[in-house]
Design goal:
binds iron/sulfur cluster
């Protein structure tokens, strides 16, 4: 979809790529759950491609990291929804998330007004999204209850804590946690 998302090198260890809360843009690599990704049958049966699984370790899959975010009278809007709807850059996301960083992406996408928030599944979660906050994620197995980790797509042979897909559901314990809190929780 956008820059930097296709890394098909097989992982040598399961690692947690996080963006720190500091001002640096360099991701910090932290050792997380144990084990190596492998080709044993996974739990999920839905192909990564069908779930639109993607891997961008430098984002939390929010509107503020999406190419479709636009300024709107002191607030923000989404090109898809048009200028009559606002979105929350630091908490919102939807099924048409398009990875881009404001520092490097300068294309002014026009107002498209092609979908409603409901049609694209717009939701908000203050600390962002990603598999590590999803109730389907199996952190200690690098696996997902729904998506087939061995299917064609990003992060071959695993479901990465920093991947995400359109089947995301808030995990009761993990969805509200910050990235450093999750590193502590899952890396313990
Ligand atoms: S609502 Fe979706 S497409 Fe629009 S800015 Fe947010 S993540 Fe991007
Ligand atoms: S853990 Fe959740 S977000 Fe990640 S692939 Fe599975 S369903 Fe999708």
């Amino acid at each position: 979809m956008h820059e930097g998302r296709r890394d098909h090198r097989p992982p040598t260890t399961l690692t947690f790529m996080i963006r720190t809360e500091s001002t640096t843009d360099k991701p910090e690599q932290v050792q997380a759950a144990q084990g190596r990704a492998n080709r044993k049958p996974g739990r999920g049966s839905i192909a990564k491609a069908s779930a639109c699984y993607q891997y961008h370790p430098d984002t939390e899959y929010r509107c503020q990291e999406c190419a479709m975010l636009k300024k709107l009278d002191g607030r923000h809007g989404c090109a898809w929804f048009g200028p009559t709807e606002s979105v929350k850059p630091s908490a919102g996301s939807c099924n048409y998330f398009a990875h881009a960083h404001p520092e490097t992406f300068h294309t002014d996408v026009p107002w498209l007004s092609l979908f409603t928030k409901e049609e694209l599944g717009y939701v908000e979660n203050p600390n962002g999204f990603s598999c590590k906050r999803c109730e389907e994620f199996l952190p200690h197995a690098s696996d997902c209850k729904k998506v087939d980790r061995n299917s064609e797509g990003d992060t071959p042979g695993e479901i990465n804590p920093n991947g995400c897909c359109n089947l995301w559901e808030a995990d009761r314990k993990r969805a509200g946690k910050t990235t450093p809190e999750l590193v502590k929780l899952l890396g313990a």
